[in-house]
Design brief:
The protein is α+β, with helices and mostly antiparallel strands. A hairpin with a 6-residue loop joins strand 2 and strand 3. Helix content is 33%, strand content 28%.
C-alpha cells in the first residue's frame, strides 16, 4: 500500500525565496529515488511564506531510506535557517 507524506512549512519573513530554493534543491533528487512515486512542491497563493510538500512512496520503508540520504540530511540541517518550527511530515494512508 502506498504511503502519502504531507509537510507544511512557514518561512521566516524575508526568507521565502531562499527557502523555496532550498525546497526545490531537495525535491529534484527526491523525485529520482526508486521508492518515490511522485512528489510535488506548492506555495500558498494568499500567503507566499507557506509551502507544502506532498509525496507518494511505494511503502514506508522507502520513505525511511529517503530520510537517510545525503540530500535529505542536508535539507533538514538547513531548514532551521529559514523556518521557525519543527519539520513535521505527516504519514498518511489513502481513504478513497
Amino acid at each position: 500500500m502506498p504511503l502519502y507524506i504531507v509537510a507544511q512549512f512557514h518561512a521566516k519573513p524575508g526568507c521565502e525565496q531562499a527557502f523555496s530554493d532550498c525546497l526545490q534543491a531537495v525535491v529534484r533528487p527526491t523525485s529520482a529515488e526508486p521508492g518515490c512515486i511522485e512528489i510535488h512542491l506548492a506555495q500558498a497563493l494568499r500567503d507566499p511564506a507557506i509551502f507544502f510538500i506532498q509525496s507518494t512512496w511505494t511503502n514506508e520503508a522507502e520513505f525511511d531510506k529517503h530520510a537517510e540520504l545525503p540530500h535529505t540530511k542536508l535539507f533538514l540541517s538547513s531548514v532551521p535557517e529559514w523556518i521557525e518550527h519543527e519539520v513535521r511530515p505527516i504519514r498518511c494512508t489513502r481513504i478513497i
